[in-house]
Amino acid sequence: VFGASVAHCFSTGWIPSLAPRSFAASPAAGLAFSASGKGLELGTQGGRGKCLGGAVRMAGDSMSGEILMVDEWFKKQGMKVSFENLGGSSWSQNYKYKADNGKEYFVKTARQSAAKMFAGEALGLLAMFDTKALRIPEVLHWGDDGKRGSYIVMEYLPLGGRSDQKALGRAVAKMHLAEPNCKEAKEGKFGFPVPNTIGGTPQPNEWDDDWVRFFREQRIGHQVKLAGDRQLQDIWKKVCDKTDGLQSLFEGVTVKPATLHGDLWSGNIASADGQPTIYDPATYFGHHEAEWGMSWCASFGGGFWEGYRELIPEDQGFKKRRALYELYHKLNHYNLFGSGYYGDSVSLMESLLR
Predict the structure, then answer these.
(1) Which of 22, 29, 41, 90 is in the most buried spot, having the most CB atoms within 10 Å?
(2) Alpha-carbon distance values, 169 to 27, 235, 260, 312 (Å)
């Protein structure tokens, strides 16, 4: 997928073979971009630090704020395209575009800004790609369409059923063990350069050097606040009081920032050309165990866990922390889809009190 010349910078899209000197950009809110002959660098407004991508920088030295419809963007690259609708969800639609040069592209559109919907996905795919552990689709462009919507263009992968489960488990473990591509994460901080979404729910990612505080406040606390339910608030307070703010759940465990997919369930796992692939992420840098919060909906079998545990053995206390990590996603499902997930959320909180 990515060649050596591809920019691993946190920017909007760029196709080196088509536009080596300029690119269309739609900066996310709260981000500060700088362009120079050495390439594009991304910082964050307000002095929160700088997060650079991999060692390869962009070759271009100019920046355009041009806003284009997705068909106009393809046209600007010199391509005539046709497309088919692949369906979607309540927050995005998926399309397969085919260009007159025979290449195929995957396009997602949304009725919100690129900053809200696709900045995080683009940067998440880049972060996972940089681990060199799995087949990750190449991100080519993301931006606003000028009509209160947005889109992301990426490589179209010929998806098939899952690859060998053991191979998938080992590949995910390699991703978790790889050095993060972000300066803050390399320094031991948890979070991500931009907020993103988990399904259609905003997911905050402010950097924090304390994992327990990060997860307590920006994950569970955030979802409980969104729910606005007194019973959930009361039980969650009891959990925090019982566990010393969740600290007791992590006794004897060293937590380091790992590159996480963040929403790893069956619908986001497949194979491409025989290689395990994952996509549609809600990526951030966090505890590797947090990846299993959606395992109730991922159908991981014995082969998967055998492959994963060969590289990352199970830490003490994992079973109880697994309930904590599942709680985040069950609360999110409650906030997205309603009361069918309320009982599970309460039960998981109560299990943390035992």
Answers:
(1) 41
(2) 35, 34, 14, 10
**Secondary structure of residue 62 in the 3-state scheme:** coil
| Whether residue 263 lies in the annotated active site | yes
Q: Which residues does the chain have with pLDDT short of 50? A: 1-64
Compute the mean pLDDT over every residue in the chain, rounded to the nearest whole number: 84
User: Distances in Å between the alpha carbon of 231 and those of 127, 201, 228?
Assistant: 38, 21, 9
pLDDT in tens, 318-351: 999 999 999 999 999 999 999 999 999 999 999 9
**What is the CA 18 to chain-centroid distance, rounded?**
27
- Using a 10 angstrom Cβ sphere, with 0-12 exposed, 13-18 middle and 19 or more buried, the burial of residue 54 is middle
CA distance 273 to 171: 15
Q: Is 303 exposed, middle or buried (CB count within 10 Å of its CB: 0-12, 13-18, 19+)?
A: middle
> For tokens 């907020």, what's the residue?
195
* Predicted local distance difference test score (pLDDT) of residue 162: 86
Nearest to 248 by CA among 324, 183, 167, 189: 324
pLDDT at 65: 55
% of the chain at pLDDT higher than 90:
76
Among residues 130, 263, 315, 344, which one is catalytic? 263
Cα distance between residue 114 and residue 169, in whole Å? 32
CB neighbourhood size of 36 (10 A):
10
Which segments of the chain does DSSP mark as H helices, in order? 70-76, 114-117, 119-129, 165-177, 183-186, 211-215, 221-227, 230-242, 302-311, 318-337, 342-353
Burial call 100-118: b when 16+ CB within 10 Å, e when fewer: eeeeebbbbbbebbbbbbb
